[in-house]
Amino acid sequence: MKRRNRRVPKKPARRARAGETYHHGALREALLAAAEELLLEQGVEHFTLRECARRAGVSHAAPAHHFGDARGLLTAFAAIGFERMVALMRRYRAQAPSDAAAQLRAVGQAYLDFAVANRAHFQLMFRSDRLDRENPELKAAGQAAFEELRQAMAAFLREHGPADADLSPRLLLAWSVVHGFATLLLESQLDAFRAKRSMAAYARTAGADMLGLLAAGLMTAAPPE
Amino acid sequence: MKRRNRRVPKKPARRARAGETYHHGALREALLAAAEELLLEQGVEHFTLRECARRAGVSHAAPAHHFGDARGLLTAFAAIGFERMVALMRRYRAQAPSDAAAQLRAVGQAYLDFAVANRAHFQLMFRSDRLDRENPELKAAGQAAFEELRQAMAAFLREHGPADADLSPRLLLAWSVVHGFATLLLESQLDAFRAKRSMAAYARTAGADMLGLLAAGLMTAAPPE
DNA sequence: GTGGCAAACTTGACAATGTCAAGATCGAGT
DNA sequence: ACTCGATCTTGACATTGTCAAGTTTGCCAC
User: Fold this and answer.
1) Which one of A47, A135, A221, B154 is most buried, counting C-beta atoms within 10 A?
2) Can you give the pLDDT at residue A23?
3) Which residues on B lie below 8 Å from A209 (Cβ)?
């Protein structure tokens, strides 16, 4: 936050905007904020590194120093997405009844609500082509989200599941259900079902229906063969 | 530049198939074939109109006349994908026992097997940003695939479902399961589960498990309010 | 203080891409 | 035979991601 009042060097300094310095100070955060804005407005497909830099008020090559390349920036933002999703899951769980079935429903509903409320962000989080899946922060954040689901499911099976219930296939089934539903919904594949209802409202009602049916399936005996 | 004396001779012996264009013979088909090759090799993310034209042996602007733009070409290819998927579903159904449960499993397994065997193609089919969802051929082909699932599910419910079974939520659940599982698998999100097994093998075994659990849920009473 | 140094930005360039406009070529109908 | 229109090519343009080299500035040793 320094004012530039010194003598002018040989090169004409173009940054006339008052209050701006050569060093941004918090470019990393500014870029992430710009990315969020951009994704919200235009979707993942129209995201552009240069436009992102433009909105943050820096040159087109500035992001490279903080994120390496475009993939780096999107990876960082995707990690933030998983963190927010975990936060939402915890909030939903805290507000739900403490029985295992309600807790499991809370996690599933949080998954769906997050997806609907953050369409582009959610889509980015599962677009391997734009991300670096090996990034430690991303892995950790994704793992944390999965862990929420895993714990809720384990508790559910302990309480309602059959004695010989195997965790893995049921975990997989639950994840597939919420993820598939979210994906199809966001890709406008369910518009015929949804009719006039808003996506958020539909994710609520249809989501609850599905989670109910799902729970029924989970309570039955072990899968065949 | 090279002059085209190669074209001087009269009609070069070309395919007797009477059909469309004559300049290239069948540029439309050649471009679709090139697209398939490209997608198979490099994935949706690296698909390029120019590279596609290059492989078909024509100039970079040639595709425009047949498909309008890149989206047009990909849309046409996605439609083909749905058609092939329907064909696979029918083949699986024909080979399966005729009872409703086996028929439903066959459709689900066909969905999964198609996805695994045609990764990029499948991903393209559900990537709205690269497609024109309003395209009539695409809509029809997609609808046909959905119809396979719908019929199998209706028959299943008639035979095994509870009396008051509502079709829509159960259809949605089934679609979400197979689609979510396929999506997660193809995005390498299930590698920890899959361990060393091949994707195809895993789609078989884990898919069968899930479809079994799913069927159990579908046979229960109506979902809670 | 006062250099000096490395991190934080900028500028400029490059190859690629999708699309458009204008020209070239060739098969076919009349 | 001869135009005509569909098919294909060439060339150009704006944009993009990334790299290399230059510029600015905070800050730490002295």
Assistant:
1) A47
2) 67
3) 169, 172, 223
Instruction: Kindly list the residues of chain B whose beta carbon comes within 8 Å of any beta carbon in chain A.
Output: 43-45, 126-130, 133, 168-170, 172-173, 175-181, 183-184, 187-190, 193, 206, 208-210, 212-218, 220-221, 223-224
Please give the torsion angle defined by the CA atoms of residues A183, A29, A69 and A133, in that order, rounded to the nearest 10 degrees. -40
DSSP A44: G
Alpha-carbon gap, residue A207 to B218, rounded angstroms: 15
User: H helices of B161-223, where?
Assistant: 167-186, 191-194, 199-218
Residues of chain B with pLDDT under 70: 1-25, 221-225
Please state whether strand C lies within 7 Å of residue A61 at its CB atom: yes
| CA triple A217-B225-A222, angle to 5 deg | 5
Distance CA B62, CA B34 (A): 13
- Per-position b or e across B40-67, b if 16+ CB within 10 A of its CB: eeeebeebebeebbeebebeeebbeebb
Residues of B with Cβ-Cβ distance to A128 under 8 angstroms? 187-188
Give the whole-angstrom CA distance, residue A62 versus residue A56: 10
Listed in sequence order, the DSSP H helices in chain A are 27-42, 49-56, 62-67, 70-95, 100-117, 119-125, 136-160, 167-186, 191-194, 199-218
**Residue that has been written with the tokens 């559900």 in this structure:** B126
Decide if A177 and B179 are in contact by the 8 Å CB cutoff. no
Residues of chain A below pLDDT 50? 1-19, 225
Residue B121 to residue A79: CA distance in whole angstroms: 27
pTM, whole model, 2 decimals?
0.89
CB-nearest partner of B172 from A179, A210, A221: A210
The 10s digit of each residue's pLDDT in A102-159 is 999 999 999 999 999 999 999 999 999 999 999 999 999 999 999 999 999 999 999 9
The whole-number pLDDT of residue B5 equals: 29
Q: What is d(CA B153, CA B107) in angstroms, rounded to the nearest whole number?
A: 9
Looking at B118-166, list the stretches that DSSP marks H as alpha helix, in order from N- to C-terminal side.
119-125, 136-160
End-to-end CA distance of chain A: 68
| Contact (CB<8Å) A129/B181 | no
**In contact, A136 and A72? CB cutoff 8 Å:** no
- Which among A219, A202, A99 is positioned nearest to A152, based on CA atoms? A99
Which structure tokens are listed for A48?
């552009």
